[in-house]
Design goal:
alpha/beta
């Protein structure tokens, strides 16, 4: 289950360290004021979700559920396969994540709150129309009216925060929500069967949080690329995002492979990890550390357990350079839900890998 950061600074740091690896097709060029109003219908009721990927070697198996961030709001997830696997497992690996920890006491955190709150605002009280290119702000106005209404408070936020708020509300209006139900169901099944749950977190300790906030204000991200790409996604990608959510719910792997995740997050992550404050805090290479930590946990579990259940972001499952591809390159047999053992035997061995 993904852990929610507890402050705006933590949210940014976790976003900057998130697993944005998918190399997706670029979105179509956006024109000023163009809004996609096609309301794609989301599926509802009880849905099974996708099948499980099987990673195995020497009689030990890791079953992997691929997750996407956005699901149909009115669906209920019920997977008999997942319930059966967890009941037979010795361990459940939670999805890779980042935990941001500020090295300060309780009183220190209270004194930090005003600074954290102010970090989400533009310097010198500037508004979005003063910090964004005029053409980009012209695109923002109708979208803001459509999804956020007449409130003016967001106009003083930094573009990256305003974009995140707009995207969240746009998803909700299109009948979409987050994937929290999946983690909650897996947690309940693991507790029901007494299965050990293992966090695969990378803990990022901010030793001097006051300096971190100051560094963010002085050398924060270039928000414009993230802001513009988020508007692209809202204007053009929502039908595809809805179709992808429906495909996950119904287990349609062909559609999940055909429709990669939206790239707006890549632009935001690049804006964050490439910023001066990220280099100063040492978070620019956190995605690589998160990946290394999960792979180590997976290999340990494969060696120790007969059966293990795990969850991964879908891009880490499907991507040619993703986590499962890296396990395959190390000699593990990896089967998609729509493959069988014969497919694995016929596939060429990964370069440099040695099956054991």
């Amino acid at each position: 289950m993904f852990r929610k950061p507890k402050s705006w600074l933590a949210l940014l740091l976790a976003l900057g360290a998130s697993l944005a690896q998918a190399q997706d097709a670029p979105a179509p060029a956006a024109s000023a004021g163009a809004i996609t109003n096609l309301q794609t219908v989301t599926v509802s009721g009880v849905q099974p979700g996708p099948g499980l990927w099987k990673v195995s070697r020497g009689g030990h198996t890791l079953w992997v559920l691929g997750l996407i961030r956005t699901l149909p709001e009115r669906m209920q997830w019920r997977s008999g396969e997942v319930a059966e696997v967890i009941a037979q497992s010795q361990e459940v690996l939670e999805p890779p994540s980042v935990q941001v920890k500020a090295d300060t006491n309780f009183l220190g955190k209270l004194f930090l709150l005003p600074s954290v709150y102010s970090a989400r605002k533009n310097e010198d009280g500037k508004t979005l129309d003063q910090v964004l290119p005029s053409a980009l702000y012209a695109r923002w106005q109708p979208l803001k009216q459509q999804y956020l209404g007449n409130g003016r408070g967001v106009e003083r936020w930094r573009p990256i925060f305003a974009a995140m708020e707009l995207y969240k509300k746009a998803l909700r209006q299109h009948g979409l929500r987050g994937n929290g139900e999946i983690g909650g169901t897996v947690d309940a099944l693991a507790k029901q069967h007494g299965v050990k749950q293992t966090l695969t977190q990378y803990q990022l300790v901010i030793e001097k949080p006051r300096q971190a906030i100051k560094a963010f204000k002085q050398a924060g991200p270039d928000d414009v690329a993230c802001f513009g790409r988020t508007l692209d996604s809202i204007e053009h990608d929502l039908p595809a995002i809805t179709e992808r959510a429906n495909a996950w719910a119904t287990g349609d792997l062909a559609t999940l492979r055909r429709l990669p995740d939206s790239r707006y997050r890549d632009a935001c992550v690049e804006a964050l990890t490439g910023a001066g404050f990220a280099r100063e805090l040492g978070i620019s290479d956190v995605p690589a550390r998160v990946e290394a930590g999960w792979l180590a946990a997976a290999e340990r579990a494969l060696a120790a357990n007969t059966t293990t259940f795990a969850m991964l972001p879908m891009d880490s499952v499907l991507d040619a350079g993703g986590y499962l591809a890296k396990l395959k390159a190390k000699g593990y047999t990896v089967l998609a839900p729509d493959e069988d053992e014969g497919d694995a035997e016929d596939a060429p061995a990964a370069a440099g890998s040695t099956a054991r």
